[in-house]
Amino acid sequence: MKRYYSLWKSTWWLWALIFGGTLFLSQLNDLLFYVSLVYLPICVSVFLWFGLVRFDEHGNEIDMT
Prior knowledge:
Structural class: mainly alpha
Oligomer: single chain
Number of domains: 1
Mean pLDDT: 86
Low-confidence stretches: none
């Protein structure tokens, strides 16, 4: 769980922008609302994947080089 907290601390602004933009676009058109129903679960799965890849179980960033 510490890995996801560390990822959230470093990218909270990006995820707030993604969710805010999705909510804004879903208010514009019915089609965009249905697209957001697919888009948001994809964003959550990408967040979980990046947490597994970029951070260890203690929340420390893994050196990718």
